[in-house]
Write a structure and sequence with these properties.
This protein has 568 residues and is an alpha/beta fold. The chain is built from 16 helices and 25 strands. The strands form five sheets. Strands 13, 14, 15, 18, 19, 20, 21, 22, 23, 24 and 25 form an eleven-stranded mixed beta sheet that branches. The chain has a seven-stranded mixed beta sheet with strand order 3-2-1-4-6-5-7, sandwiched between helices. The chain has a three-stranded mixed beta sheet with strand order 16-12-17.
Length: 568
C-alpha cells in the first residue's frame, strides 16, 4: 500500500495554496522643533493605531523639552544638534526607519485622532495607492493659495490637489527612495511633483478639520520662498521652463508662419486689389517659417519627453501647444476647402472656392430665422422621369421665396418645385433644358447669393394653403436679380386674415385678381389702401401696407398675368 501514500503526497504537493499576504511594517515619523506642548499627545494618539510598528520623533534642534516629552510618551527620538529644517528632519527619520510604509505627521496638531492617522495609511496598506497626502479644513493656507497653486498650475497643470502643501502624508519606502527630499518646507510639494512626474500613484485623502498654531508672517514668508524655490527647481529639472520659454517661442513663430500662409491664400482668392505675386510671396514666406519652427518644436518636444520619465507631461504639453494645434487645424480646413473646390479638365487645374451665405435679417422681412447660413449648392441633372421637376434644397427655396409644389416657368416651360432627395441636402437637380436656358452645367457650384441672378426673370406661382392643407389662393411673381423696396399685402376672407406676404409693387399700377382661374377684378396699388369684393357669399379684403424690408419677388401687373388667383 506504500504506493498509495506516494501518490497522495504528489497530489498534495501539486495543490497551490494561496500565499499569505506579506505583513507590512508601518512607521510614523514626527518632525518636531520646540513642540514640547503637543508632541507627547501626538505620539499617544499614534500609539492607538494597532498596525503602527514604530514611532520616530526627529528632534530638529529644539531648545525646549521636546526630546523628553517624546521619550516619556514612548517614541524613539533622533536628535539634530541644530535646526536643519523640516525636510532634513523627514529625511533623517526616513533613513533610520526599517518599515515598509512610512507616515509623516506634524508634531503641533492639537486634535489629532487615530481615525485621522488610519485614513492616511490604510489606502496604502490596502494596495490602492503608493502615496497618500491629506487635505483638511483649516484657517490658514495662504502660501498654498497665493504661491503654490498658481505656480503648479503654470508649470504642472496636471497636478490638481486641493492642498498640495498639507504637510501630512504617507508612502511606501520603496517609492520614497526615488524622491529628492528638500531640506526645508519645500519637501511636501517636491514629493508631490516627483510622484506625479515619475508616474507614482498619489491619492489625496480627507482627514477632516485639524487645529494647530498659526504661523507668524515671517515664517510664512520663509515658507513661501522655499516652496517657490522647490517648484522652480523641479520645473527646471523636468523641462517645464524650457517648454514654457524655448518651445513657447518656437510655437509663437510657428503660428506666425501658419498665419502668413492663411493670409497669403486669403489674398489670392478673396482680395482682388492685392496682386497674385504678393499673395504667393506671403504664403511662401509663411510656409518656410512654419516648417522651420514646427521642426524646432517637434525636436524640443521629443527631447523633453525623453527627459521626463512619466506621462504627466501630456496635459502640460497640450496646454502649451494648443494655439499651434488650433492654427494647424484652421489651415488644414482652409486647404481642404480649396481641394474640394478644385477641378482638373483638359490639362487645366481650376480652384474656385465657394463659401456659404450668412444671412442676417435686420429689417421686417418675414423669415423663419433672423440669422441663417445657406449654400453653396451643387448642380446636377434631373433624374430619369423627372424632366418636369426641379429638386431644390430648402435653403434655396427660402432665398427665392418659394416652396414645394410651387411652379416655376423658365423660357415658356413650366416646372414643379420638389424637395431634394435623401442625402442630397445641398444638391440642385435641374432638367437639361433648364440648365441650358439659364446657362449652367452639372457640377456647377452656385453660391446662395447668386440664386436670384441665376433664376432672374423666372415666373413663379406660389401657393397658400389653409390649416387643412387646402389651397386657398396662389400669387404670381417674377424673380428679380436685385433686391428692391418691398411692401406688404394682407388678405382677409370673412374678416379672418389668411395670407400675409411681401414683394415689389409699382405705385398706382393695376394688378389683376382671378377666381378659380378666371379674371374677376383689378386693384390699384397704393400703400395704406384696401379693396373689398364679394364672391360666393364671402367678403374678401386686400390690404396694402408699407414695411421696412426688401424683396426679389416682383408681383405681376395687369397684362402680365394674374397677381392673385383665389380658389373657391
Amino acid at each position: 500500500m506504500y504506493w498509495f501514500f506516494v501518490i497522495l503526497a504528489f497530489l498534495l504537493a501539486g495543490i497551490k495554496s494561496e500565499k499569505p499576504k506579506k505583513y507590512q511594517k508601518v512607521s510614523v515619523i514626527i518632525p518636531a522643533f520646540n513642540e514640547e506642548g503637543t508632541v507627547a499627545t501626538v505620539v499617544e494618539v499614534v500609539k492607538e493605531v494597532s498596525f503602527v510598528d514604530e514611532i520616530i520623533v526627529v528632534n530638529d534642534g529644539s531648545s525646549d523639552n521636546t526630546e523628553n516629552e517624546a521619550l516619556n510618551a514612548g517614541a524613539r527620538v533622533i536628535n539634530h544638534e541644530v535646526n536643519k529644517g523640516k525636510g532634513a528632519a523627514l529625511r533623517t527619520g526616513y533613513k533610520e526607519s526599517e518599515c515598509d510604509i512610512i507616515a509623516f505627521i506634524d508634531a503641533d496638531i492639537y486634535n489629532l485622532s487615530s481615525a485621522k492617522v488610519k485614513a492616511m495609511i490604510k489606502p496604502i496598506l490596502d494596495g490602492k495607492t503608493d502615496i497618500t497626502k491629506t487635505k483638511f479644513s483649516r484657517a490658514s493656507g495662504r502660501v498654498t493659495e497665493l504661491t503654490a497653486k498658481p505656480l503648479l498650475n503654470f508649470f504642472f497643470p496636471e497636478i490638481n490637489f486641493e492642498q498640495p502643501l498639507s504637510g501630512q502624508f504617507a508612502a511606501r519606502k520603496e517609492v520614497l527612495k526615488k524622491m529628492d527630499f528638500e531640506k526645508d518646507y519645500g519637501v511636501d510639494v517636491g514629493i508631490v511633483i516627483d510622484a506625479d512626474v515619475l508616474g507614482i500613484s498619489i491619492t489625496e485623502v480627507d482627514i477632516g478639520a485639524i487645529e494647530h498654531d498659526m504661523s507668524p508672517l515671517s515664517d510664512l514668508n520663509l515658507m513661501a520662498n522655499e516652496v517657490v524655490r522647490t517648484i522652480i527647481s523641479r520645473a527646471n529639472k523636468y523641462g517645464r521652463v524650457v517648454m514654457i520659454d524655448d518651445i513657447g517661442h518656437y510655437i509663437r513663430m510657428s503660428i506666425v508662419g501658419l498665419s502668413l500662409i492663411i493670409l497669403g491664400l486669403f489674398t489670392i482668392f478673396f482680395v482682388k486689389f492685392v496682386p497674385l505675386a504678393v499673395g504667393v510671396i506671403i504664403s511662401v514666406i509663411g510656409l518656410i517659417l512654419a516648417i522651420y519652427y514646427i521642426i524646432k518644436v517637434i525636436v524640443k518636444s521629443i527631447v523633453m519627453f525623453r527627459k521626463t520619465p512619466g506621462k504627466s507631461l501630456i496635459k502640460s504639453f497640450i496646454k502649451v501647444h494648443f494655439p499651434l494645434i488650433i492654427s494647424i487645424i484652421v489651415l488644414l480646413l482652409m486647404i481642404s476647402t480649396f481641394i474640394g473646390a478644385a477641378h482638373f479638365e483638359n490639362g487645366v487645374l481650376s480652384i474656385e472656392p465657394n463659401s456659404r451665405n450668412l444671412i442676417i435679417y435686420a429689417d421686417d422681412s418675414p423669415s423663419d430665422n433672423s440669422i441663417s447660413v445657406r449654400g453653396p449648392y451643387t448642380v446636377d441633372t434631373a433624374i430619369e422621369d423627372e424632366s418636369d421637376q426641379i429638386r431644390m434644397p430648402a435653403d434655396a427655396m427660402m432665398t427665392l421665396g418659394i416652396k414645394t409644389n410651387d411652379t416655376m416657368q423658365i423660357n415658356g416651360e413650366t416646372y414643379v418645385i420638389n424637395d431634394t432627395r435623401e442625402g442630397e441636402s445641398d444638391v440642385l437637380r435641374l432638367p437639361v433644358e433648364v440648365q441650358r436656358d439659364i446657362g449652367i452645367e452639372s457640377m456647377y457650384i452656385i453660391q446662395n447669393s447668386r440664386l436670384k441672378e441665376i433664376f432672374d426673370g423666372a415666373m413663379v406661382t406660389h401657393s397658400y394653403d389653409d390649416e387643412n392643407s387646402t389651397n386657398i389662393l396662389k400669387e404670381n411673381f417674377k424673380i428679380s436679380s436685385k433686391d428692391n423696396n418691398a411692401s406688404v399685402y394682407e388678405v382677409f376672407i370673412d374678416n379672418e386674415s389668411v395670407v400675409t406676404s411681401s414683394g415689389i409693387f409699382k405705385q398706382d399700377a393695376a394688378y389683376d385678381i382671378a377666381v378659380d382661374g378666371e379674371y374677376f377684378t383689378s386693384v390699384n396699388f397704393e400703400v395704406g389702401t384696401n379693396t373689398t369684393f364679394y364672391q360666393d357669399g364671402h367678403e374678401i379684403v386686400v390690404l396694402f401696407k408699407d414695411v421696412n424690408s426688401t424683396s426679389i419677388k416682383q408681383f405681376t401687373r395687369e397684362g402680365q398675368g394674374y397677381f392673385l388667383n383665389f380658389n373657391f
